[in-house]
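Notes, Module 5: Reading structure tokens.

Key idea: the token line is not a picture. It is a compressed description, and you learn to read it the same way you learned to read a sequence, by spotting repeated patterns. We will look at two proteins. The first is printed below with its tokens.
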Amino acid sequence: MILRVTFLILLLTANFSDAQTRLPDITQDGITIRETWITLPDGVRLAASLFVPADSSPDARLPVLLEYLPYRKDESRSNRFGLFSYFVKQGYVVARVDMRGTGTSEGMLIEYEYTDQEQEDGEIVIDWLSKQPWSNGNVGMFGVSWGAFNSIQMAMRNPPALKAILAHQGTDDIYRDDVHFMDGMMHVDSYEVGVDIANVLPRPPDYLIDDAYFTERFDTKPWMMIFKNQQHDGPFWNRASLDTDYSRIKIPTFVMGGWYDGYRDSVPRMLENLSAPVKGLIGPWAHTWPNDPYPMPGIEWRREAVRWFDHWLKGEDTGVMDEPRFAVYVRNWHPPGVVETAPGFWRWEDGWPVKRTKHTPMYPQDNHTLSATPAENPSAHKLRYVPTVGVEAGGNVSWWGDFPYDQRGTDAYSLAYDSAPLDKDTEILGFPRAVLNVSADAPAANWFVRVSDISPDGTVTQVAGGGLKSAHRDSAEKPVALVPGEEFTLEYDLHFTSWIFPRGHRIRIAINNAMWPMIWPTPYPMTTTTRIGGRNASHVTLPIIPPKDSSENLSKDSSAHDDGPEFAAIVPSPSLPGYEALPVADTTVSGYAEVKSIERNPLTATTVIRMPGDDGSVYPWATIYYSEDLTHEVNDNTPALASALGKASYRIVQGERELTLSCDLVWRSDAKFFHYEYARRLHENGELLREKTWTDKIPRNHH
């Protein structure tokens, strides 16, 4: 109640033409949050929250952990208080800094994600943190998602005070793995709709609307418009992608991921390729922190992070570097769809790759079975392209993560090949690799390969998947159209996976040309051909992990090491008074847009998919409501004419004042172009204050 009254006084007395109102410093549960500015060389001030031990002595010199994001630290204050409290109580200062032009920070909104400007500012921030009187001079950086991305990117710059990083659910390859081009193919995501309107929210807690606000935020070019003009790999993406040169990181790196998250591939790649000290961990989670897991089981990852940072920032021998380098959660079978708990067990591995892996090819046969040897006589299996196929395999914002549905709907429109029932439990861990000899009677096509588990009752759980654009068969930087009717070979890795196929289950490999709505449809009606058997036969190689002993069934005792990692119990996260989440509608889960309706009209061959979402939070100074809706539509007979319509809005209520920022996106295609139409609007108490629109006509460069 005291916090709420304090903020009401602040808001009532604020002069909206004067300097930005700041949140008050507070102390709660032995932790003090101090608000400060970090001034950059050009005079722009970045807003920072410092979470410090309340009982710290004046002469204490503590290491600092940095989380550096555009995601509005003030509205995240309570959430981050809960997350950071663990580190503060272990003798750290944690700094949460809003990037230039975002949240409470000053300046022009960063031009797009992961710019040089963002990283140059980050170097100043790290240096500033290292030179404060309460700092011991050692800075660590950590984060999830964007915070993982830029932890990796800042480590690539090796600023002197940055001694170690921990990156959870980030990537070393932003072209193939990020949300704009999935596997190098066009992808239209609810994030792209929502982030553009979130970027232009005014600065809290007063949400001042003035000329500077319009210049620096509201009128800036939408990021989606920029990214969709960069349709192939190259310098634009390589500027912030580690995979072009792993030697750029010279500091200790701890990389984490989750099996139900789309960024997991970076964990083994960085384990394999970094020469700096490195550890990896991958568990059974979607896009979330493991101390607040979805699905279960979670772990107290912060204890592992403290051991890591204590070693590198405090010089303490915590034993963290004496353990095997890779902790992996091995997944047991579960049915398709959402699960609350992902069954499996933890195991240590010495690193990556796992040396005992048996790379085992599985060859499709003419009778749609799988065999360890290719068919002697080649045959051609044809498949009509159905653009609206794929929602069961990747229909949500899944990025080859989340929880795919039962695959039978997608498999019905795929070339599917099944093994005989397995005579023993069979584990895979790694990147399955697809080699396909294919052709198409059109100049462009995408190919998707999925590996699934067929249980005795017929349900099909997707285990791994991945896709490749035909134009990228030789190079993602220099695409080349295919020649209709001409056979060529596609060879690529599917996404990182772990799975134990139980005895009596069957393995399915399915091949098709659509993964909608995750991947934008290619424009041509067509039939594709996959060559089965003969020399250099099409196949998928599975990374099979043999059991430690000769028993038929794998168990916790058959891991590579006698003992797996033992994690500490999850410590409950405290919260701040005056902050609470509003209940979301029944149509959503935690504010993320999900597929909630699929309307197929067999008379018109049209399918419409809607992905609505809403969210809301109460703060001491305002209540904010968020909603979004993304609708995809495709006709199987005219795949060129696909569309995605997006809406998003923030409604900020402060007493009698109500601000509403909203946007409308129209993304549609024809045979040659993508058409972009975007509108932003700002209303105050129902009155339109500003509206701005953008349009673009973008050539379909092999998409």
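Here is the second protein, with the sequence above and the tokens below, as before.
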Amino acid sequence: MESLISSVTDWLSAHSLIAYLAVFLLAFSESIPLIGVVVPGTAVILALGALVPSGVVKLWPLLISATAGAIVGDGLSFWLGHRYHRAILGRWPLNRYPELIERSEAFFKKHGDKSVFIARFVPGVRAFVPLLAGMLGLPVWRFYAVNVASALVWAPAHILPAVLFGASFRALGKAAKPVAILLVIVIATGWVVWRLVGWAVRRAVPLLGAAIAHVRSWAEGRDSRFGRVVASLLDPERSEARIVALMLAALAGAATVFLGILEDVANSEPLVVADRAIYTALQDLRSPVTDTLMIGITELGDTKVVVAMTAIVFLWLAWERAWRTAAFWLVAVAGASALNTVIKVTLHRARPDELLYSGWSAFSFPSGHSTTNLVLYGFLTFLIARGLRPALQVPVALGGATLIVLIAFSRLYLGAHWFSDVVGGAAFGSAWLMLLGLFYLRRPAERIGSPSLLVAACAGLILAGGANIFQSHAVDVQRYAVREVKPEIVADWEATGWQTLPIWRVDLTGEEEEPLTVQWAGSLGALQAILQQQGWKSAADWSLTSAAIWLNSSSDAAALPVIPLFDSGRLPALTLVRLSEAPVTSRLVLRLWATDKELADATPLWTGSVVEERLLHPLSLGTFVSTQPDLNAPRQALVQALGGSLPLRADAPIDAEWDGRVLLARPQ
């Protein structure tokens, strides 16, 4: 593929006049009805514009060709409409696209003369507006004045950014071509996926409608209260029938997620292992500034603020005499809090830091902050947005969702909850909120004064949240401070104690990956000094420049950065590489991670793995690494460098890829 791209660019360099003619024809075709809808003229023009910095094509001829093609194309389309009037719309193939013509005509009537200028930048209607302008009698001189002005803006607006984009690619050096090819592949794949998703949605909507009609027909045949409720909710005459259908789907999805997490927590499945890894990773990323911010956010979701916000909204609803909405409001918030507490007490799951809270609050699953605040601010957002005009509904929804997500993440960041606690609480709160919403929507909406309620809710959050932060922040800074973990002492490490260290590397998803075949007792500096004398080198640091090396099919293996892997939430503390003999087709990679264990004399213990990575260059699109399954040969190379012992783990599975032995080494 790289050679194909090179051939194309070389051919264009030798036949640049054909490239300019192609730009003229593509710009021309985009202004012709139907042809402009099908032909990807803009995409090709952008691609040619990106070649300007390399000298394949020149800027000014490219701009002139695109401008002239756009003017002539719109002019021909205008002449066809001016000459044949509406009779042309009844001819093939225009008569097969009445909806697009109707949309274009509405666009022209809405914007008048300006539509010729605006439409050049609007896909779809662009190819039809000049035709309709001629058909509806726009004066010729006025059309061409707007036509020329729009073309003079359209051509530079498309070509100049492409030129800048091409110039930035040249800065990548040898990686420029692979990046360009991969970008083309990604764009093409995205376009195909977009078209397939659109096709699936167009066919899924009728199927969903048929399924809803089937459920409604089944419910109407049931002489029960449940059947009447379902039939009422799915009544197509109701304006909110589609919202109800979406809420039913959301209810089913949220309930499924919650029950799945509950099963994993109850059975201590891999999600529980992932909890520990994610907790460790986030605790390693904490900083004083971020801690202060996250503590303030979590205090916005404290019980005091929740009670205050619940009371403020209830009093507002009572003032508006929206008694039914007020009752649902109390049931939503109080019910979520009560059910959350019942589940906590039933499971008795401990928090990451058991000293944070006492009593019922000491239990972890599900997160009360996630559950209660999602229900509170989710229901409040729904009540407010329902009474606002559409232009304001999206900002209100985004604001409510942002607050909910930030409060939930703050619990995870501060180590107050496990990952499964937060996600499980959000899923449970979503299911509870959807369930109540289905019953709430059975009757017409009550007048609640949404704009004023929005102001009252914001003011209440600022006052109640601010007061709680002022009162509790000093105490909470101490409560959520990072706890120093005292290392566990490993006795008789070289005899039997080494087997108390983990046998597998655990990634962030809780899955067990490659075995940890190396243990080192001592400082990492001492290990690095020993191995450097044996030809090992420090791995290249990650940066924009080093990351681009992966996109070069002839890159230096020594300059390739090593992909960092997590072990129980920790990144490698030391990464070293050793290249194979020339030609370089592989390299050995040693990664060491910290542990929570040390020897009796305070010597730290590290676990790690050493693997062989083969370098691959598929289709000359860059450099990829393939980790080889054999773990014995790489470990044996490390044994020769360190001269350590190789005891056999009694609990290790033995196969051809790993003989179950672990290298134990320390400074001589």
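Summary for the second protein:
- The longest strand covers residues 586-598.
- DSSP finds 23 helices and ten strands in the chain.
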